[in-house]
Specification:
Blueprint lengths: L8 H15 L4 H7 L4 H9 L4 H7 L5 H23 L2 H11 L1 H15 L4 H6 L9 H8 L4 H7 L6 H14 L3 H19 L4 H27 L6 H4 L8 H9 L3 H11 L3 H9 L6 H22 L4 H26 L4 H5 L5
Length: about 350
Amino acid sequence: MAGMKGISAPTIYVCTRMRVRKAKLLPREEYQRMLNMSLPEITRIIEETSYKQEIDELGTTFKGIDLLEVALSWNLAKEYQRILDITPGTLKQFTLAYLRYWDIQNVLTILRGKLHGEKTGKIKEVLVPAGSLDKVVLDRLLAEDGPDRVVDALKGKRLYPILAREYPAAKESGSFAKMENELYKQFYAEIIGEASGGDSGGRMFLAFIRLDIDVKNILTLFRLRADSVEEDAKEMYIPGGTMSAADFALLNTVKDYREFLDMLKSKVRTEPVVELLKSIETERPVHEIASLLVKVQMEQMEKLSRRNPFSIYPILVYLEKKKYEVANLRALARGKESKLPSETIGKYLVM
């Protein structure tokens, strides 16, 4: 087959498997249908999909929304593990690096939960042990008395130096925004370092990371506009994308919304993101902007994956789509449980 010279059989195998798996993910129409269903009906549909095994296994211990929460998290972690098992060489190295994102998510979830006095069981339901901090480590963190002890228990781990530095101020202010941002800065800096080896796989991975950083920085700018909390814009900027720190800081000073959008369009170098910004005429809630940006990011990833069918892209596309399938099902279940209108729930979904 043309264009496959020099590509290893394991790479062809794993990329083909990713396309098969991606085809089995829930289509947009299914979410549209679920928006008009009750929580028990949604649960029954999920029981007929790839989540059946986890729902069956956990059905004796959990009920209702708790059962769904745990089943979705378990399924996602197990699926990521299965993918790592079949991914070869440098593709595996990049996939592992990408999955460290979950370390940040899980630790922040535990810290927030402990800070707000949540029950250990409730915190555990939403953890996804898919990063370098496995189930054993996360269980140990959950068993700690309070958030301060959780930070201490992470000594020797990648996240510890930043947590030790940032946590006291985060705890005092009640806002984790700066600490979270610092953790992501470290995460991206490490990944860029790992991917800058010079081979084509590294270059492709870098293109994905740059797009991811751009989306995060744009979303942060929208958040800073919406928040009454005065964060230092320079500190919230994540280096490594296509937008400069000076442009980011300047954009944050623009008060008029139309002027802000026009300037943002001139600073962003990703055409689909520019097109999206052109379509946002009026101010919208941050969660709607987030969903739109993710959608554009996924479409861009799909294009790159079609152009490079035997590369890191098909793996990343599937990992991201699977992550958002779980996030969508969780949003649907929580929304129905809270008796939110279907239109409101729909705005939180990435379809």
